[in-house]
Amino acid sequence: MPRTALPRLFFARNTASIPVKGLGNPTKVPLDEFVAANCPSLFKEYESPWWLFNGHLQTLYCVLGDFSKIDKVEYDRTFLRTTDGGTIGLDFTPSPSERILPNDTPIVVVLHGLTGGSHESYVRSILAPACSPVEDGGLGYRAVVVNFRGCAGVPLTTPQLYSAGTTCDLVVALMHISKLYPSAPLLGVAFSLGANVLVRYLAEEGSRSRLTSACIMACPWNLVANSSRLESNFFRRNIYSRGMAQNLTTVVQRHLDTLARFPDSPLSRAFPRFLESGEFTLANYDDMVACVAGGPYPPFPFETVLHYYAWASTHEVLADVTIPLLALNADDDPMVQVLPIDKGVDNLSPSVVFALTTGGGHLGWFEKGSYWGHSKRWVSKPVIEWLRATGKDMVISPSQARKLIEVDGYLMEEGRDTLGCQVVEGGEHIIGVEGEEGLFAGL
After folding, report:
1. Is 262 within the bounds of a domain?
2. pLDDT digits over 410-422, tens only?
3. Known catalytic residue: 192?
4. Is there a domain that residue 238 lies in?
5. Of residues 125, 178, 192, 227, which has the active-site annotation?
6. Is residue 362 annotated as part of the catalytic site, yes or no?
7. Is 333 a catalytic residue?
8. 82 strand-pairing partners
9. How many degrees, rounded to 5, is the angle at CA 364 between CA 359 and CA 366?
10. At residue 373, does pLDDT exceed 70?
């Protein structure tokens, strides 16, 4: 039977006050009142379709469903070369050839899931309404999807990958976007692994964050506990863990030519050992590959996967977030069973609202009325409401981010000489999901 219930909302004991625009001076509103006034969908029941009545079905439909004909979004891609030689891909929408927007238009900055990209249906389900013109019922915003190294057609130019805790590529992406649009508020939206990266970024940057608000979905939070739950359950281990490991294996195999140029690198040595092990699970991949090649040295390499998971987890740094953050999880997510609010709200930042739905799976949240080939995601409603409120109604405080400077052709931040980027050739217009064969979508 379909599960129907109101989302459960959790706030810190003392919530932050949100400055909102008014006829005169800005008015400060407690976060819980701000949410109640601007996110009505969080106060209405979410009902799943009768044929997607549990988290496994929701998640598997997210992987196997056909979403190619809905929520179409086109992008213009820019490649950024980082100071360590790596490459990340930024996909901008709408294209200037389609629509010219004012320079102060709010920008949604998106981080995808484990092996995804701008093509993913869960990404497009948010960006289609966020970036549609106001006259067509959309927000009229601009968006940029940050595609991780090696994902979604982004070339791997060094033997360093990405991980659930590596934030340096997000830092340089936000530097570039801020340089292009210095007067635009930047609103973060992130999914699954990308959500974990975003929370770490917000906790690390604090008041220097270039994002003015954020919304995350299906964050894995406590990686140690949730990995243990995933790997110790026969079904989850053999379906989800192996499926994610297969995706990661496919991504790395697409870049074997690059690895051949770095035969002595940690990644070039670790990946063949992982293949030879025959143990294609997410935990084993993380133990043998992500631990050594998922980010810069230091802190990589990690001694064991548990050390890596403990470092990358976000449940304990959530209290350090200083901007308004909406976090959404489903209570039947088969990959995320342990949540920060399981033991109360003491580790919630005053700026965080945590919403837990009854049903929805992992990045599913398909709602009643969905059918094969035309599925509606309930989660797009509260996300769009949140983006509208924090992008248009919230008063943005003056940025405390570090000053941008240029050093030897690289865009950098004053006082942080280890991170920088420059635009390189190779960008293109992106339509559809070509080139993503061999990957399970939605993971």
Report:
1. no
2. 999 999 989 999 9
3. yes
4. no
5. 192
6. yes
7. yes
8. 421
9. 75
10. no
